[in-house]
């Protein structure tokens, strides 16, 4: 009903036995409909949460419970179209990412139309994350809201805690399925309905509304013998083949190449649940969510290539606004186990910064993003870097990769150091210490980012159009 300006995201989910350290990890690029769409990173306290919620894009409104908990969020700077909180972790160490805009088909929409005044991506984090104590509870809350109010768009919604990851997909105005991601598996979701075979007798791994099977039968939606949610509710269009499936193909090609050796970017039968050839790291996830089909004929940065005529939509591209990688770790105390790794602007050229989420506030260079360009702000500094490097890729990418490796190494060092420093702290003393640690981490990353920006401006200026060298240092 309301075309989303954030409808181009890519999601990666990694079960705890598939990650390098036993964490659950959920990550998603938030991509806007335009290249510049400023974001900020904030903490919402109990008193910041509204008790009555009103959507901006629809007439949806909701009286919220009186018991919200503190949580992080990455909302829009502009508020004219709503909050768009997108990704965060609450004090119960429950992570939520919302949403991965997906697809459905006309037969489903004929049977269960979208609800014009329902809720959508704009609303979901705000009306859900402050009120849940487990990933499973997150699915149940959204399911109840769908039944009562409905939605005006199809979305994939992700929840995780220290043990489980749940991926929930809506279809039509009121229907949905959620699947628990196996502990040893990963998922790449690229704007398509993904869940495949649904097991109605397996409540440990699947959730769905009570009327789902009856709804499908009454409306003659299932064209096969099995109950394949993707085939019943999803789409298989030319747009999918060029815009969506190539992203899943590239990610699976990177993590489990043998499984997709006979597949192509346009294959419409890629698996939803996948198993990697090795333990998956933070760096692996960042690489995939930054990727533009490197080492294939489809890379728009290949010399001579025209990015405007590339046949497939990259994962890392100019409309990336923020990447939140939400990690819940099992091997430290729960009060500092949750980390939100955050990157702003175009992913091929930015870095991830790790922030503890049990904090009082976020660093101002990530929190106080303005509508007007400010190179001392994380969003704008990274937006400038992406603009420069995209036009001078071959000359400058080595500098960017050096910066990315150094800052990611620093991020891992900071986590190890801070974990040790706060292991005996509790309550307000802990939150204060973690807040201060985040400030120091952000200061260092911003310093490195500003140094990179300076270097790139100098190098790009030497080779800009209209340059002229006459052999003299001054003239």
Question: Strands, helices and their partners?
Answer:
Layout: E1 10-14, E2 24-31, E3 42-44, E4 52-54, E5 61-63, E6 71-73, E7 87-89, E8 95-101, H1 106-111, H2 121-128, H3 135-149, E9 155-160, E10 165-171, E11 175-180, E12 186-189, E13 206-207, H4 212-218, H5 229-233, H6 238-255, H7 282-289, E14 320-328, E15 338-344, E16 353-356, H8 364-367, H9 378-391, H10 393-422, H11 427-462
Antiparallel strand pairs: 1-2, 1-12, 2-14, 3-6, 4-5, 7-8, 8-9, 9-10, 10-11, 11-13, 14-15, 15-16
Organism: Lentilactobacillus kisonensis DSM 19906 = JCM 15041
Enzyme class: hydrolase
GO molecular function: cysteine-type exopeptidase activity; dipeptidase activity
Structure report:
32% of the residues lie in helices and 17% in strands. It is an alpha+beta fold and 475 residues long. The mean pLDDT is 95. The protein is built from eleven helices and 16 strands. It has a six-stranded antiparallel beta sheet with strand order 12-1-2-14-15-16. The chain has two domains: 10-331, Penicillin V Acylase, Chain A (4-Layer Sandwich), CATH 3.60.60; 370-465, no CATH class. One of its GO terms (biological process) is proteolysis.
């Amino acid at each position: 009903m309301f075309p989303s300006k954030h409808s181009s995201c890519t999601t990666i989910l990694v079960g705890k036995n598939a990650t390098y350290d036993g964490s659950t990890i959920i990550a998603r690029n938030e991509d806007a409909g335009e290249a510049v769409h400023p974001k900020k990173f904030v903490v919402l306290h109990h008193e910041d949460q509204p008790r009555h919620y009103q959507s901006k894009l629809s007439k949806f409104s909701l009286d919220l419970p009186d018991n919200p908990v503190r949580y992080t969020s990455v909302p829009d700077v502009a508020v004219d179209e709503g909050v768009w909180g997108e990704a965060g972790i609450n004090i119960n160490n429950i992570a939520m990412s919302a949403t991965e805009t997906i697809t459905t088909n006309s037969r489903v929409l004929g049977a269960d139309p979208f609800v014009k005044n329902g809720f959508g991506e704009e609303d979901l984090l705000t009306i859900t994350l402050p009120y849940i104590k487990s990933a499973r509870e997150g699915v149940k809350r959204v399911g109840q809201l769908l039944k009562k109010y409905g939605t005006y768009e199809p979305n994939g919604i992700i929840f995780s805690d220290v043990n489980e990851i749940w991926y929930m997909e809506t279809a039509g105005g009121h229907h949905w399925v959620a699947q628990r991601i196996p502990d040893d598996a990963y998922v790449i979701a690229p704007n398509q309905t993904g869940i495949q075979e649904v097991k109605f007798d397996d409540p440990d791994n699947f959730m769905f509304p009570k009327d789902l099977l009856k709804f499908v039968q009454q409306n003659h939606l299932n064209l096969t013998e099995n109950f394949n949610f993707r085939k019943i509710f999803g789409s298989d269009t030319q747009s999918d083949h060029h815009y969506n499936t190539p992203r899943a193909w590239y990610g699976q090609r990177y993590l489990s190449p043998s499984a997709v050796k006979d597949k192509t970017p346009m294959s419409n039968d890629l698996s939803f649940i996948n198993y990697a050839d090795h333990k998956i790291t933070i760096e692996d996830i960042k690489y995939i969510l930054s990727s533009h089909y490197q080492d294939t004929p489809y890379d728009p940065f290949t010399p001579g290539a025209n990015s405007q005529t590339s046949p497939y939509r990259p994962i890392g591209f100019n409309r990336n606004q923020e990447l939140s990688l939400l990690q819940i770790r099992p091997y430290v105390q729960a009060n500092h186990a949750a980390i939100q790794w955050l990157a702003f602007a175009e992913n091929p050229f930015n870095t991830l910064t790790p922030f503890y989420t049990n904090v009082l506030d976020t660093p101002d260079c990530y929190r106080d993003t303005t509508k007007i360009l400010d190179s001392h702000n994380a969003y704008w500094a990274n937006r400038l870097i992406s603009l420069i490097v995209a036009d001078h890729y071959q000359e400058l990418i080595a500098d960017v990769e050096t910066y990315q490796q150094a800052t990611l190494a620093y991020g891992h060092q900071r986590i190890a150091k801070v974990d040790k420093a706060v292991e005996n702290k509790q309550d307000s003393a802990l939150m204060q210490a973690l807040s201060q640690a985040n400030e120091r981490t952000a200061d260092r990353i911003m310093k490195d980012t500003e140094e990179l920006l300076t270097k790139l401006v100098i190098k790009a200026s030497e080779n800009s159009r209209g340059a002229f060298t006459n052999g003299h240092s001054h003239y």
